Amino acid sequence: MRRLSSCRFLLSVLIGLTILGQSNRIQAQTVGGPLPPAPRAKEVRMKHVLVIGQTKDWEHDSVSATMAAIYDMGKESGLWDTTMRTDTKLLTKKELVRNAKNLNYFDLIVFASTSGELDMDASQKQDMMSFIKEDGKGFVGIHAALDTNYTWPEYGEMLGGWFDEHPWMTFNAPILNEDPSFPAVRHFPAAFVKYDEIYQPMSWSRDKVNVLLSLDASRLDYSPNPKIHRADHDFPVAWSKMYGKGRVFYSTLGHTEESWLDPDIRTMYFEAIKWALQMTEGSTASHPRPAASTPGR
């Protein structure tokens, strides 16, 4: 009998608690309405990157590796999606058909070792410069992007110059890190060596860019070399600059297919893209040439 009484008592307690809970829920719905949904995490809009790999002159074997690396960086990080083209059709603000995206869709243009005079009419050139200069979108030039559009003065002004030979071809280049605070090069030591092809720029001035990496002029071979045209022996390897409202990054590194397997090179371009997309901050102010790099004799 005692066990039966205990069971009845427990059952009564459970029924009471159930009724109380239902009453509280009804009261909450009546007085305050339905409970609000749980707050959602803040969504970050994925950026859109357009990679152009058109070559109208020298065609680098590394173009495909370059484009694939940028695609993989965006996919693995979740920071951007990548559209890869070997034509210039999308370099326009004109409305396109059949789901083609124009420049209004993109946040950044990357020239992946483009070369020669690209297939762009006057309106496309105007739209691309407006994309950077007025819209404040980004541009990243990789290696032979410097060997591109010689007959388009504003392109050279935007990028910082043009290609004027590679005096040492592909070699173990002694490189100085001139701005270790910049996100794209902060992982490099103060001085290091990379096996790559370093371009010599023309129509280029240190006063108009922020040199990030440069050749150590004190360690270069100056034996008779008709390809050396810079009397100041100032050979930049990477730089940052502004063009109007837009951020511009360029580096000559990335000539070989193997370079795109180098974590240092991939990190540099990954961080350069983030910077050009305004995800990070870094200087574009020019600075004097470091005393450590003195012209060879």
| Cα radius of gyration in angstroms | 29 Å
The description of the largest β-sheet is: 9 strands, mixed
**SSE class:** alpha/beta
CATH topology assignment:
Rossmann fold
Low-confidence stretches: 13-17, 26-31
Helix and strand string, N-terminal first? HEHEEHEHEEEEEEEH
CATH architecture: 3-Layer(aba) Sandwich
Level-1 CATH class name:
Alpha Beta
Report the mean per-residue pLDDT as an integer.
Answer: 89
What is the spatial order of strands in the main beta sheet? 2-1-3-4-11-10-9-6-7
Number of strand segments: 11
How far apart the termini lie comes to 111 Å
Strand content: 15-25%
Number of helices, where a helix is a run of at least 4 consecutive DSSP H or I residues: 5
Query: What is the name of the CATH superfamily?
Result: Class I glutamine amidotransferase (GATase) domain
Task: Describe the protein.
The chain has 297 residues and is of the alpha/beta class. It has a nine-stranded mixed β-sheet with strand order 2-1-3-4-11-10-9-6-7. A two-stranded antiparallel sheet has the order 5-8. The chain has one domain (47-276): 3-Layer(aba) Sandwich (Rossmann fold), CATH 3.40.50.880. Helix 3 (122-133) links the parallel strand 3 (108-112) and strand 4. It starts with a helix and ends in a 21-residue tail after the last helix. The chain contains five helices and eleven strands; from the N terminus they run αβαββαβαβββββββα. Mean pLDDT is 89; it is low at 13-17 and 26-31. The longest helix is centred in the N-terminal third of the chain and has 30 residues, at 2-31.
